[in-house]
Amino acid sequence: MTATVKKVERVVPDLAMKAYVPAILEGLGVTTRHFVQNLGNLVSGRKKSKRGTEEIATIRYPDEKREYPPRYRGHHRLMRREDDQVRCVACFMCSTACPANCIYIEAGEHEDPTIEKFPVRFDIDHLVCIYCGMCEEACPCDAIRMDSGEHTKPKYSRTDQRVHLVDLLERGGPSIAKQGGRFS
Ligand code: SF4
Ligand code: SF4
């Protein structure tokens, strides 16, 4: 397969662009268009959505949520073994592959001699994460996944965006993959 290269012309920003004026006007234009459209639909009651309510251009978040596409990368989760223990063996492959350097792991020695290590601490800083999926790709144990379908919620402090082992395991579930990456 031959690789295709798409050349992107570099735009030299003028003063208006540097001041974000066109972008602000464009954003206001979209908001106004949605407002007028919603108002028109609500007043006339013409259009009904599948839910039987008036069709509007925006959604009533958080009561209504958009359905994300299957390839959407959501909040990380750590998977569990059949006996409910964490699958992660603290090999550091994910933190090594992470281009944003936002995974912090501390390894502990496992009492089971067949399991060498496990994470005593596993933190991900979601303010630094770029949701590239490299951690998921690098993991040989299907221990970390980004298929929760949840986006990172806004928080009041920067430190609250750092998620820990407990949070990550709460979202996790059982995995049928054999340690080493192959599915049974
Ligand atoms: S998604 Fe990318 S940036 Fe985020 S933790 Fe994984 S490897 Fe790092
Ligand atoms: S790559 Fe997988 S097994 Fe290794 S430390 Fe990361 S989550 Fe754990």
Could you please describe the fold and organization of this structure?
There is one protein chain. This protein has 184 residues and is of the alpha+beta class. The chain folds into 2 domains: 7-66; 77-171, Alpha-Beta Plaits. Helices cover 24% and strands 12% of the residues. The chain is built from 5 helices and 5 strands, in the order H-H-E-H-E-E-H-E-E-H. The chain has helices spanning 15-18, 21-44, 93-97, 134-138, 165-171, and strands at 77-78, 103-109, 117-125, 144-145, 162-163. The strands form 2 sheets. It has a 3-stranded antiparallel β-sheet. The chain has a two-stranded antiparallel sheet with strand order 1-4. Strand 2 and strand 3 (117-125) form a beta hairpin. The model has no long low-confidence stretch (mean pLDDT 86). One iron/sulfur cluster (SF4) is lined by residues 88-94, 105, 138-139, 141, 143-144. One iron/sulfur cluster is lined by residues 97-100, 102-103, 124, 129-135.
